[in-house]
């Protein structure tokens, strides 16, 4: 898969991994719709793209989890550039702490981290099958392969995102629909650094598990994986070894995670 001349939509594109992906796609010759709940941030990324590649991008403020708004962004992409070839379901939330007693927080995590992916593919996959080509990139997390200490909603919904991406690839991969699932650990974004996102314990679990990458580094990994049509994208290669340990001896892995959690909780806030 080469991105030149392709039409791409990037959700959560107003910064972080999404912003870096949008700019890297445009640098590779794609035409990009940058969409974000924060319309001003999306516009700022689109403006940077157009400063070097005039007319290569448009921006739309939209909620990536709302079916009607997903449809309006797809319509805008088709009107501006033509049929959508690449869809990056990158928008995500780190909602919830512990078991999280508030069902509204669970609903938010499920809507943004999982249902947004389902709703987008419902609209796009039939056309991709008809054309024999399309690419869906899911931003999940290493938490979707391992777990997230400190947040049940984040861990559960990221597992679900990985599961949906797997199903999508198995079901439609022979019909021209390509799927990749991005599972990084720490990345220098608001999700990690904003006190209103991950709890202090959850953030420490991420930052002490491995290096914290810049969004641009992750974007490079994504484009390289797409060129190889690789399903699992691991910007932190050590995640694969952790995942293997988990699968080899699940009980031992859980005991190890309990010890890790205890060490994090013992640290000063």
UniProtKB/TrEMBL annotation:
Xref: CDD domains: SDR_c
The superkingdom of the source organism is Bacteria
Read off the Gene3D superfamilies from this record.
Answer: NAD(P)-binding Rossmann-like Domain
Keywords of the record, alphabetical order, are: Oxidoreductase
Any one GO MF term held by the record is: oxidoreductase activity
EC number(s) of the enzyme?
1.-.-.-
Query: What family, per the record?
Result: Belongs to the short-chain dehydrogenases/reductases (SDR) family.
Protein name according to UniProt: SDR family oxidoreductase
């Amino acid at each position: 898969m080469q991105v030149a001349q392709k039409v791409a939509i990037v959700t959560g594109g107003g910064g972080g991994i999404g912003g870096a992906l949008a700019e890297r796609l445009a640098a590779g010759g794609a035409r990009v719709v940058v969409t974000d709940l924060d319309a001003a941030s999306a516009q700022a990324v689109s403006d940077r793209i157009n400063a070097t590649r005039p007319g290569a991008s448009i921006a739309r403020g939209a909620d990536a989890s709302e079916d009607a708004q997903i449809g309006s962004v797809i319509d805008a992409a088709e009107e501006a550039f033509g049929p959508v070839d690449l869809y990056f379901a990158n928008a995500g939330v780190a909602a919830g702490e512990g078991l999280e007693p508030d069902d509204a927080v669970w609903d938010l995590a499920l809507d943004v981290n999982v249902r947004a992916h389902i709703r987008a593919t419902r609209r796009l996959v039939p056309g991709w099958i008809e054309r024999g080509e399309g690419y869906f990139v899911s931003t999940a997390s290493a938490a979707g392969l391992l777990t997230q200490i400190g947040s049940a909603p984040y861990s559960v919904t990221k597992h679900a995102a990985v599961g949906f991406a797997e199903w999508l690839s198995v079901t439609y991969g022979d019909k021209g629909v390509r799927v990749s699932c991005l599972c990084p650990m720490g990345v220098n974004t608001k999700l990690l650094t904003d006190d209103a996102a991950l709890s202090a314990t959850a953030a420490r679990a991420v930052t002490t598990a491995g290096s914290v990458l810049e969004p641009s580094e992750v974007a490079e990994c994504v484009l390289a994986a797409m060129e190889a049509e690789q399903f699992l994208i691991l910007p932190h290669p050590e995640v694969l070894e952790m995942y293997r340990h988990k699968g080899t001896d699940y009980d031992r892995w859980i005991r190890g995670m309990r010890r890790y959690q205890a060490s994090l909780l013992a640290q000063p806030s």
